[in-house]
Amino acid sequence: MESELSSVATELGDIWSLVRLQFQNLALPSRLWQLALIALALVLAELARHLLTPRMRNWMRSLEGMPMWRLRALLVVNRRIRLIAFTAAMWAFYLIVRAITPFPSRSFILELVATLSAGWLLVVFGSRLVRNPLLSSVVRWGLLVYVTLWILGLRDEIADTLDQLAFSVGELRLSALTLLSAAAALTLLFVAARFLTRIGTDRIRSTEDLSPSLRVLLVKVLQIAAYGLAVYAALKLTGVDLTGLAFLSGAIGVGLGFGLQKVVSNLVSGVIILLDKSIKPGDVISIGETFGWVNTLGARYTAITTRDGKEYLIPNEDLITGQVVNWSHSNNFVRLDVHFGTAYGDDPHLVRKVAIAAAVGVDRVLPDHPPVCHIVGFGDSSVDYILRFWITDPTGGLTNIRGNVYLALWDAFRENGISIPFPQREVRVLGDGTPGRAAD
Fold first, then answer.
1. Which of 29, 191, 310, 435 is most buried by a 10 A CB count?
2. pLDDT for 164-219, tens place per residue?
3. Kind and range of the H or E run holding 302
4. CB–CB of 401/371 below 8 Å?
């Protein structure tokens, strides 16, 4: 370990000596006027940003009918006008100096800065292809560091230094270079996997021949396979011996198994739900006091949207172990009940006919599944009935359709002289209410 640290110190000392030598050479006249040209390029770039950015923004606002991807590209260009102008100015100065003098030392710094700015510009534009903000930042800064070291000629020296910073786990040797290479490869492969899964997901969801549950299942399998292959390929590309990770991964797996037991249970429950097709996107379900339709089936939870706009995230394990009412499991036919009562003086045969006719006239009530009305009891002040009818769109709400049926019953009963009683109490006063006279 001490020998490795001493070699690392030697490498860092050599790099520092090289950097210090270059800074000492900046005092040469041929280097000073190159620095002056770089400063002039910075001034021109700032002037271009000040003049062109607002004008280009106003021009973009006047565009109509242009595809969204072109507008995004123009927006990126608008935000990077200063870097674009600086790169153009540096290459112009470099080409002019090379045309004037044949000595490479007179344009060395100009060429270096121009190449660096061009590399940074390509990295900035290339990282915009990654839509995830965090992942885009990681890719951008990682590529900026790599491109800078490569252009400066320090890549091999830094790589050797990082490779000497290592430790061993059994037969497995892990160095800082290996970890950074694995992280870089994993990031790039994750970007590729994310891009491919997005394309595959769009194709799967646009296929009408597949059921909703099968679409969700295929999307999950595609994501697991793509990201799993990305991790495996990243480890293989960096030269990590997977056999050496067997013991370490086993120990980590046991620890995570206890800590992530609920997470794994929800993942397995989600796969079971997709396989047995008990719940699928678009189903109307009730679980506890929650009633709504299934919006999405996630790996860990199921999103249920209620009629009032609330979205409940129900863990998949609760859908497996608890009681769930699926209103549209095998078909969309749902029967609803409405209870009401009429006075004892009303003809029950007429009441039943009027109630059935009123329900048939309500929108969303199915006429081909005729409503039925039955007497269910004789109450204290009314004859109690139940009216049953069918609908096929439970996603449209249940309370509102019941309310419409009640309104139809109210109107129909008033037209036919049928009264809806309410509890009454009759108080009788016995006697004349005066106290008895005293005996003579």
1. 191
2. 776 666 666 667 777 777 777 777 788 788 888 888 888 887 877 776 667 777 88
3. strand 301-305
4. no
